[in-house]
Write a structure and sequence with these properties.
- The complex is a heterodimer of chains A (474) and B (237).
- Chain A is an alpha+beta fold.
- Chain A has one domain: Cytochrome-c3 Hydrogenase, chain B (Orthogonal Bundle), CATH 1.10.645.
- Chain A contains 16 helices and 15 strands.
- A four-stranded mixed β-sheet of chain A has the order 2-1-14-15. Chain A has a four-stranded mixed β-sheet with strand order 7-6-5-10. Chain A has a three-stranded antiparallel β-sheet with strand order 11-12-13.
- The radius of gyration of chain A is 22 Å and the shape is globular.
- With 237 residues, chain B is an alpha+beta fold.
- Chain B is built from six helices and ten strands, in the order E-E-H-E-E-E-H-H-E-E-H-E-E-H-E-H.
- Chain B has helices spanning 25-31, 83-99, 114-121, 157-166, 200-204, 226-236; strands at residues 7-12, 15-20, 55-58, 61-66, 77-79, 138-139, 145-148, 171-174, 181-184, 210-212.
- Chain B has a five-stranded mixed β-sheet with strand order 2-1-5-3-4, with helices on both faces. Chain B has a three-stranded antiparallel β-sheet with strand order 6-7-10.
- In chain B, strand 8 and strand 9 form a beta hairpin.
- Classes of the chains: A alpha+beta (474), B alpha+beta (237).
- The structure holds iron/sulfur cluster (2 copies) and FE2/S2 (inorganic) cluster (FES).
Chain lengths: 474, 237
């Protein structure tokens, strides 16, 4: 009985991501779709594997946010084991997740988006990348590179590996924190503050010049979802989910990982491999929501750290009625996230129990089903497993951030395409703007494979007769 | 009386060495610090010649001989490194990798696996054979240990240690050729078998096929060197 599972993103997707813009008889934009891959294969080939192997298996989904998968997966396993992990283990994981958020956001903001923001949407694509940024504004480029290294180095110190640390396991972590490592991380913090402050200052100077983009970059009402603590402060690793409505009203609160499948549904659209998550009581597409930095800042009352709280109150002033709606503000939210991450890491390291040796709980299979959730840099991540009585996986389902932002990305692309594509043609600058809308969400496809801030992306313009009238691939 | 009848003199890689009658080429080579790669052999267990990684050439004979089960004779001339041997060893390793499902990056044994180490040491850069990707079960029924058939290379070390050292003889081989499988008792689940939970099989397994559940995510080195010591102590009794 031999079988072959081939996962070939290149044949399944042209250039990893694809945008199709449909024109009507008058040559105006009628519809637009953004298509992206989702790693469904992982759910299939985890069947039959021991559940305690899942964190390291699932972390392979992504080279940028493996830590969030590790954590969501370990939490799902802990639900199966019915254990509560030691306090120190929870704190260490929280720190690991924050470090990953910092490095991932640094990649998104500085490497992928700052070229547009600094050099301009219409600037020469040949130099519109991080090296172009370093050339034009060295201190900004360097700050970004340093912040990325800050996050990566913490991951490396904690997990002994930069990309796929095996340190997070069902029940906690495998090794306690050594005091030398704590001191090393503490030593890196002042520089990290200086770098994020520089970036925040710069962002505030240039934000206004992007008023036209802010207007049309996925700027519409939607629901927002993310994790928060009981005191309504932002949370990345524990806590429960809150869903906020378009006017800032709380639609649902305290959603645990176990309740998630009751509340969130996944719809299928014929043009995309990715599912479209929605809030069940409102149905699809009305129940579509956004996740990630913008959503987290919208739903949280506070950041729980002093400097980030200062920034949060400025952020909240952007909109005087309810949540901040334009996805352009994902950029700003990302910077505030980073600031919070650094502050929080510092706080966690001063926890008197942080060097405690008790970091792992053990147990066998005590329940046949378990779910776990965490915030990945780009939004809520949900892992849900079923096992047999020996703990072998019989079924798995993952809901990732990109699936939850899918509807918003599609709407955002349509909004921008309608605004920019005028006479049935587009220029490189327009292509870049439409792409930049997608980039604000920092979806998973903008992953390690792409070089210097360019998303491997194909855009097709399709006439009312279904003919491809223009096409750009890069 | 002379004891010379019991002593054999032979050449291994041009080096003159002496041996006691009945010793294997592998034993003599080890005594003289001459390295021959092995996989199914383990000091302290009987030899079965299952993996054929230890093949050597003997002058005057065109066949290849497994060093772990070939006895020395007077005047023997053994060569352990030739292009032909290298090719065979590499092919064996490739076949082992292609036979079942080895995904080192997510394997408990990653970094502590004898198969993996041999692959690196023998310069295995890719597998030329098509992977068979068989669909194989995982036996996780035991409270403490797991058997993942996907990573088993049928070296039968577990069978031998359990029968010869522990005396429980839980493990055995079922089926033939490429379809053969390790089974516990009469093809019972491991958790329901007569296993004594001593863990010896886990320690001697060269790969990630047998592992300790609590070692997931941590380093999982194996400690097979307990065997010769255990044997020594038993002999002394
Ligand atoms: S048993 Fe060894 S060779 Fe096989 S997957 Fe594990 S580490 Fe790799
Ligand atoms: S389970 Fe391990 S020790 Fe037993 S035959 Fe397979 S590889 Fe060898
Ligand atoms: S070590 Fe000699 S045949 Fe395996």
């Amino acid at each position: 009985m031999s079988q072959t599972i081939t996962i070939d993103p290149v044949t399944r997707l042209e250039g990893h991501g694809k945008i199709t813009i449909h024109l009507n008889d008058q040559g105006e934009v009628e519809n637009a779709n953004f298509h992206v891959t989702q790693v469904r294969g992982f759910e299939k080939f985890s069947e039959g594997r021991p559940f305690y192997e899942m964190p390291s298996l699932m972390a392979r989904i992504c080279g940028i946010c493996p830590v969030s998968h590790l954590i969501a997966s370990a939490k799902a396993c802990e639900a199966i084991m019915s254990v509560r992990i030691p306090h120190t283990a929870a704190q260490l994981r929280r720190m690991l997740n924050l470090a990953q958020m910092v490095q991932s956001h640094a990649l998104s903001f500085f490497y992928l988006s700052s070229p547009d923001l600094l050099l301009g949407m219409e600037s020469d694509p040949q130099t519109r990348h991080i090296f172009g940024v370093v050339g034009a504004k060295p201190e900004l480029g360097r700050a970004g590179i340093a912040l990325r290294r800050f996050g990566q180095h913490i991951i490396e110190l904690l997990g002994n590996k930069r990309i796929h640390p095996g340190w997070v396991v069902p029940g906690g972590v495998t090794e306690p924190l050594a005091s030398a490592k704590r001191d090393e991380i503490l030593g890196m913090i002042p520089e990290a503050y200086a770098n994020i402050e520089l970036a925040l200052r710069w962002y505030k100077q240039i934000a206004e010049t992007f008023a036209p983009e802010i207007e049309v970059f996925a700027n519409f009402a939607s629901l927002y979802m993310g994790l928060i603590n009981e005191d309504e402060s932002i949370e990345f690793t524990d806590g429960a989910l809150r869903l906020m409505g378009a006017r800032g009203e709380i639609v649902a609160d305290g959603i645990t990982a176990a309740q998630f499948p009751e509340v969130i549904g996944e719809a299928v659209e014929p043009y995309s491999y990715t599912k479209f998550a929605y809030y069940k009581p409102l149905g699809y597409p009305d129940g579509s929501y956004r996740v990630g930095p913008l959503a987290r800042l919208n739903i949280a009352k506070s950041m729980g750290t002093p400097m980030a709280d200062g920034e949060l109150s400025l952020f909240k002033q952007i909109s005087d009625d309810g949540p901040v709606q334009s996805s352009f503000y994902y950029h700003y939210a990302r910077l505030i996230d980073i600031l919070h991450g650094i502050e929080k890491i510092e706080m966690i390291l001063s926890d008197p129990l942080i060097l405690d040796k008790h970091v792992r709980a053990t147990a066998g299979v005590n329940r046949l089903e378990g779910a776990g959730q965490a915030e990945a840099p780009r939004g809520t991540l949900h892992h849900h497993y079923k096992v047999d009585e020996n703990g072998l996986i019989t079924w798995a389902n993952l809901v990732i951030a990109t699936g939850q932002n899918n509807n918003a990305m599609n709407k955002g692309v349509l909004q921008a395409a309608k605004h920019y594509v005028k006479d049935g043609k587009f220029t490189e600058g327009i292509l870049n703007r439409v792409e930049a809308v997608v980039r604000t969400f920092d979806p998973c496809l903008s992953c390690s494979t792409h070089a210097f801030g360019q998303m491997p992306l194909a855009i097709s313009l399709v006439s009312a007769e279904g003919e491809v009238v223009d096409r750009v691939v890069r | 009386m002379s004891t010379s009848v019991d002593v054999k003199t032979l050449l291994i890689d041009g080096q003159e060495v002496s041996a006691r009658s009945g010793q294997t080429i592998l034993e003599v080579a080890k005594e003289n610090d001459i390295y021959i790669p092995t996989l199914c052999h383990l000091d302290g267990l009987s030899d079965v010649g299952a993996c054929r990684l230890c093949v050597v050439e003997i002058k005057g004979n065109n066949k290849l001989f497994p060093a772990c089960v070939t006895s020395v004779f007077e005047g023997m001339e053994v060569t352990t490194v030739t292009e032909r041997l290298q090719k065979h060893r590499l092919t064996i390793l490739e076949m082992l990798f292609a036979e079942r499902n080895h995904i080192c990056s997510v394997c408990v044994a990653n970094g502590h696996c004898e198969l993996q180490t041999l692959g690196q040491e023998q310069g295995l850069t890719h597998v030329r054979l098509p992977y068979r990707n068989p669909e194989l079960p995982v036996d996780a029924s035991h409270e403490r240990f797991t058997l993942d058939h996907n990573r088993c290379i049928m070296c039968t070390r577990c069978v031998r240690v359990c029968a010869e050292i522990e005396g429980a003889h839980v493990w055995d081989v079922m089926g033939r050729g490429i379809d053969s499988m390790i089974i516990s008792d009469l093809h019972e689940e491991w958790g329901k078998s007569s296993c004594t939970r001593c863990g010896k099989c886990v320690q001697v397994c060269p790969t990630g096929a047998l592992f300790d559940k609590s070692k997931i995510g941590s380093d999982h080195p194996k400690y097979p060197d307990f065997l010769p010591n255990l044997n020594l102590m038993r002999e002394a009794q």
